[in-house]
Amino acid sequence: MTNPQSPIPNLHFPITAASMRIVALSGGVGGAKLVDGLASILLPENLTAVVNTGDDFDHLGLRICPDLDSVLYALAGLENPETGWGRADETWNFLEALGSLGGPSWFKLGDRDLALHMERTRRLRRGEPLSVVTDYLRRALGVKPSAIPMTDDEVSTVVVSSEGDLPFQEYFVARRCEPLVRGFRFVGIERARPAPGVTEALSAADLVVLCPSNPWVSMDPILAVPGVRELVQAKPVVGVSPLVGGQALKGPAAKMAVELGFAPTAYAIAEHYEELLTALLIDAQDASLAPQIRSLGMQVDVTGIIMRTREERASLAARVLDFAKGILSPKGAR
Amino acid sequence: MTNPQSPIPNLHFPITAASMRIVALSGGVGGAKLVDGLASILLPENLTAVVNTGDDFDHLGLRICPDLDSVLYALAGLENPETGWGRADETWNFLEALGSLGGPSWFKLGDRDLALHMERTRRLRRGEPLSVVTDYLRRALGVKPSAIPMTDDEVSTVVVSSEGDLPFQEYFVARRCEPLVRGFRFVGIERARPAPGVTEALSAADLVVLCPSNPWVSMDPILAVPGVRELVQAKPVVGVSPLVGGQALKGPAAKMAVELGFAPTAYAIAEHYEELLTALLIDAQDASLAPQIRSLGMQVDVTGIIMRTREERASLAARVLDFAKGILSPKGAR
To answer: Taking burial as the number of CB atoms within 10 A of a residue's CB, which of A214, A263, A302, B315 is the most buried?
Structure first.
């Protein structure tokens, strides 16, 4: 395994950007990739990932935090690039044996991945808050930048669907996103407090990055934690569109957009974050949408935003920072 | 994998013995081997294993029942003959990953074995009694004879040692049986009721077999469940010594005997079960002890009692039944 914190060679980005203090709001796969890209060009102390926990759920007595795992595995260089979840170096003997005993095998738990859920659960059960456990796991995995759950309190995303209210993982994994989406509820969000470190990181940030994660089920829960939206709004905010060419690179964002009544394009993303975004990065495929998005009062950068390789993660991260530099200059600041 | 229930060929035993109704009291490895031997020559409906649960414990949020597992795995043909616990076809990726996260890896949980503990725990957690869960797992593993925990109530073996009271698994696994044994307590035993089926099987039995398991920590808990000893005492009882040539074939029985003040021989076993045993099978190596054991008022059969192969399990089981036939004849019955 290569050292996940080793710098990407031959990359051109403004050296001054490396000293910006960045908070990246992240959900699952796409978000984790950009966080990893940012980690490869920033000093670890200048990067904090604040991660959605609305998808977290209990399964087989284990507390499973899919988005935190995606971010931790990506930063540790362990993630499975094919599936978008779990680890690359994985075996499935536990799950196979569980299935042969008639146990619930719909949620895919690899043998090594299982250890992370088990250790997290063991520590939660003895009373450690999720943020403390996450910080422990981060260090154990050799990850240097901070990764913080949006809250230590339990928040559960419920999909309001054509088949009634569904817990997110049931909608997402067991039902493969088939029920039509009408909306979402984040149960427990009113009482949720930002996890220790979230408010501090946002207050100290030079820039907030909205990673290319699902706006409705990954970003909105983070922004809905009381106090977080206001802290984000006070900063320059650059987003990267999770939709390219009318499709989500991964996951159900495009399908959700349509079911919620929007055309599944980067414009819908811009509109969704209208109050919040200083600028949005959209893909070259979507260049024609740029004028329309600018008319919403935000800046637009058109570039390649698909991250197929580690190098592309780093170059997109560099592009975000480079573009942000203009925003951060006295003239561009709001 | 061979069918664990297929008959052993070319074995000579009285065909009438196959129709005896047998209850085998069993602890871990040695006991499980003899239960497997009995299963290979008896009709499944004529064999019930009543299994110690005093070693059961919670680990990583899982309910682990080592002796039930030994019996189930042996009967399913899945047991690991080298370790004496766990499965033969096993991988260790979970445990390795757990260890690298700083989690507790002292108790060896294989990837496939873990599925059994997980499914058991899941069912216990939703309110099924251990006997119901065990019966479910037995069927799922394709095991035909009954295997019943001694009780559905929680009983915990505590080792009274030179270092104070130790939970059994801590003494046995974490401390490798190093502390000196002074005695044992079975916490919760006074309130424990025999699991459904135990009383019925014992009442209907033609013969009770005390398998070659540790008398203090495997057999005594079963016999201490209120009502069980009386039911056993009312039947012809044949035991197989767990000690051969002054040593335990597996586990700490010999060490415990010495620390409890006994010579670690088959005679100590006979003395321990004096009130209970109709007959004891001892190894040819211990033939010289036979007269002394007979003087305790029980019959003795001297034979090879070490079970190295599946054939030896079956032939020892046949020997037990053959010998018991004499006891069961009107003349030999008590």
So the answer is: A214
Q: Nearest residue on chain B to A100, judged by CA atoms?
A: B140
d(CA B46, CA B144) in angstroms, rounded, equals 10
Q: How many CB atoms lie within 10 A of CB A116?
A: 28
In terms of DSSP bridges, do strands A279-283 and A237-240 run parallel, antiparallel, or are they unpaired? Answer: parallel
Do B114 and A102 make contact, defined as CB atoms within 8 angstroms?
no
Q: Does A104 touch chain B (CB under 8 A)?
A: yes
Encoded tokens for A232: 């984000």
Q: Which of residues 73-102 of B touch A (CB under 8 A)?
A: 90-91, 93-98, 100-102
Q: How confident is the model at residue A17 (pLDDT cuts 50, 70, 90)?
A: low
Among A90, A96, A112, A133, the residue to mutate for chain B (most B Cβ within 10 A): A112
Outline where DSSP puts E strands in A112-155: 146-149
User: Does CATH number 3.40.50.10680 belong to domain B15-55+64-79+135-155+188-328?
Assistant: yes
Does the domain at A15-328 match CATH 3.40.50.10680? Answer given as yes
Condensed to tens digits (0 to 9), the pLDDT of residues B87-99 reads 999 999 999 999 9
* Domain-wise residue ranges, chain A: 15-328
ipTM: 0.88
pTM for the whole thing? 0.89
For residue B25, the SS3 value is strand
Does B94 sit within 8 Å of A111, measured CB to CB? yes
Q: What is the pLDDT of residue B17?
A: 62
Q: What is the pLDDT of residue A16?
A: 58
pLDDT 10s digits, A149-166: 999 999 999 999 999 999
Q: Which of B62, B94, B96 sits opposite A94 (nearest CB)?
A: B94
B84's tokens: 């004496």
Q: What pLDDT, on the 0 to 100 scale, is given for residue A331?
A: 41
Question: Is A122 in contact with B98 (CB distance < 8 Å)?
Answer: no
Tell me whether A105 touches chain B (CB under 8 Å). Answer: no
Interface size between A and B, measured as CB pairs under 8 A: 98
Q: What is the DSSP letter of B316?
A: H
The answer for B177, left when phi > 0, alpha when psi is -120 to 50, beta otherwise, is left
Poorest-confidence range of A124-128, B80-84, B133-137? B80-84
